[in-house]
Design brief:
Blueprint lengths: L1 H4 L5 E4 L6 H16 L5 E6 L5 H14 L3 E7 L2 H10 L4 E5 L8 E8 L2 E2 L3 H12 L8 E4 L3 H11 L7 E5 L5 H11 L3 E5 L21 H10 L3 E5 L6 E4 L5 E2 L1 H15 L4 E5 L4 H9 L3 E5 L3 H11 L3 E3 L5 E3 L9 H15 L3 H4 L7 E2 L3 E4 L2 H17 L3 E3 L4 E5 L2 E7 L5 E8 L2 H26 L1
Parallel strand pairs: 2-3, 2-4, 3-7, 8-9, 8-10, 13-14, 13-15
Antiparallel strand pairs: 1-5, 4-5, 5-6, 10-11, 11-12, 15-16, 17-22, 18-22, 19-20, 20-21, 21-22
Helix pairs in contact: 2-3, 2-5, 6-7, 14-15
Length: 456
């Protein structure tokens, strides 16, 4: 288990082969030991609706209870409810059983120490405890608590719509459907749900709203019913995807512009964080509206850590992770973010394209994912950095390689959760977009081929 599934900011792999039942029990013991060493024992456990999540909950509890943890089981729920529960129930940490947007054969764990999702060295510390198997021995206890009701009460008390909106919702058969539709109905929306029943086999499409083919049915719904907006959630609802009234995708960086403008109208000079896949227009728009924009690494744990460090009011990623400190707790919550978007729409009386007026038109690609084995993906990116620098191009190395040109940029970075390379491109014209993407993609294909030849 240890070599492949302990990623930069979570634990994730193929259920049964890469993560066995005994691995899960030992992970529970390791986390219990990790917490006990800090004098902590009061934690929360939640799970998504994957077919292996119930079984993994049982095995995880075995390990946690044998190491003396006092556990609140909040059941099947979106990941943001785990973060909410830690705060609402005054707990010292927690574990969420989820593989987020990955295909159904995957499962995994997001781990919190206090309010913070652990990442990097702290995740490796957990892996080391598992390897050493020097676990704390004690007797714990478990109780089950409903956290959905207080979450619904919080959101509906803090979000107010000035007019009724007609909203399409595609939850991808993940955990967000029942909760999101309940909240949107309570807010007074006219809700048109598809795939909002939970089914861990994800029979209609994978629960990843960054993949365009997963939005096809939602787009048809928005256009057929003449809706104001379409909202999609990923498998554990910490991310969202958005379609405007024309059925056009509104990527995470454009959502950030909408949210940042609204916040800056009330909080001049606020700090905002986004990541290397986001458009240059986002950073420029924040600065032009009197805010401070910081480019940072991709990854929910890394973003949350940077927010705390610099006191940011909002952060966001292209992938639809949106983190509100303004009016919220600073963690990524697709359901809350969708409600904030609806609030802006209802109060402004505008459509989404109108809320983006003044943003220069750019030609860009969505995230492009190229399969690349875990064993070589980081080495491919490092080689690419060297080659582009040797061509006297500016390379931003915050997270992978963002190669800047006078009229655009291209990105290549290794995914921390899948055996893929993530690419994205932006330019002022479609011709330059093709030139930049061809240059970078051909370079990556060549380098990847060389590495694959070495391990064949």
């Amino acid at each position: 288990m240890l070599s492949k599934v302990f990623r930069e900011y979570d634990i994730r792999g193929i259920a049964g082969s890469e993560i066995t039942d005994s691995d899960v029990s030992n992970l529970g013991r390791a986390f219990g030991t990790y917490m006990a060493r800090e004098g902590k024992s009061r934690i929360v456990v939640g799970r998504d609706c994957r077919l292996t999540s119930d079984r993994y909950r049982d095995r995880l509890m075995e390990g946690l209870l044998s190491s003396g943890m006092d556990v609140v089981d909040i059941g099947v729920c979106p990941t943001p409810l785990l973060y909410f529960a830690i705060r609402h129930l005054d707990r010292e940490g927690g574990m969420m059983i989820t593989a987020s947007h990955n295909p159904p054969e995957y499962n995994g764990f997001k781990v919190c120490n206090g309010f913070d999702t652990i990442a990097g060295a702290e995740i490796q510390k957990l892996a080391a405890i598992m390897r050493e198997e020097e676990f704390t021995r004690a007797s714990g206890r478990v109780e089950r608590i409903d956290i959905a009701t207080p979450y619904i009460e919080f959101v509906t008390a803090n979000i107010k719509l000035d007019r009724k909106l007609r909203v399409g919702v595609d939850a991808g058969n993940g955990t967000g459907g029942p909760l999101a539709t309940t909240i949107l109905n309570l807010l007074g929306c006219e809700v048109y749900p598809i795939y909002c029943d939970m089914d861990g086999s994800f029979p209609n499409h994978e629960p990843d709203p960054t993949v365009m083919e997963n939005l096809v049915d939602l787009r048809k719904l928005v256009l057929r019913e003449n809706l104001d907006v379409g909202i999609a959630y990923d498998g554990d609802s910490d991310r969202l995807g958005v379609l405007d009234h024309r059925g056009e995708v509104v990527f995470g960086d454009k959502l950030m512009i909408i949210f940042a403008r609204e916040i800056l109208s009330r909080r001049p000079g606020s700090v905002f964080i986004s990541e290397v896949k986001c458009s240059k227009t986002l950073y420029d728009d924040i600065e032009s509206h009197g805010g401070k924009a910081i480019m940072w690494k991709t990854g929910h744990s890394l973003i949350k850590g940077k927010m705390k460090e610099v006191g940011a009011q909002l952060a966001g990623e292209m992938s639809g992770h949106i983190f509100f400190k303004d009016g919220y707790f600073g963690f990524d919550d697709g359901i809350f973010a969708s409600c904030r978007l609806l609030e802006v729409l209802s109060r402004s009386g505008k459509r989404i394209p109108d809320l983006l007026s003044g943003v220069p038109p750019m030609h860009s690609t969505p995230e492009i994912r190229i399969e690349c084995p875990d064993e070589i993906k980081f080495a491919v990116v490092e080689r690419a950095k060297r080659e582009f620098k040797d061509k006297n191009l500016e390379v931003i190395e915050i997270d992978g390689a963002r190669i800047n040109f006078s009229d655009g940029w291209g990105l290549v970075r290794a995914s921390n959760t899948q055996p893929v390379l993530v690419l994205r491109f932006e330019a002022e014209t479609s011709a330059r977009l093709k030139n930049i993407s061809d240059l970078i993609e051909l370079t990556i294909d060549r380098i990847k081929g060389e590495f694959l030849g070495q391990i064949a």
